[in-house]
Amino acid sequence: MSTDTDVSLSSYDEDQGSKLIRKAKEAPFVPIGMAGFAAIVAYGLYKLKNRGNTKMSLHLIHMRVAAQGFVVGAMTVGMGYSMYREFWAKPKP
């Protein structure tokens, strides 16, 4: 029975930062969607103090819909961009 300890697992050798950068290069709109989501949540928390007579539940629903809408929009644009790169921008052989 032989044990081979020289197995190279290059995908397991990278740290969190380099993996995030590699994934962001592969799908650039995913980090944009995450940043937009975080920005909308931060804006919602900031506006929570000055919401006036609006009920808390209504304010939270509006912020959730805005954040989800931004993420879905970023994913849609990212999918369109990747389809463009793969099907239309690919050089013909």
TrEMBL record:
The chain crosses the membrane at residues 27-46, 66-84. It is found in: Mitochondrion membrane. One of its GO terms (cellular component) is mitochondrial membrane. It comes from the Eukaryota. Its main location: mitochondrion. Gene3D superfamilies: 6.10.140.1320. InterPro entries: Hypoxia_induced_domain, RCF1. Keywords: Membrane, Transmembrane, Transmembrane helix. One of its GO terms (biological process) is negative regulation of apoptotic process. The keyword Transmembrane applies. This is HIG1 domain family member 1A, mitochondrial isoform X2. It comes from Carlito syrichta.
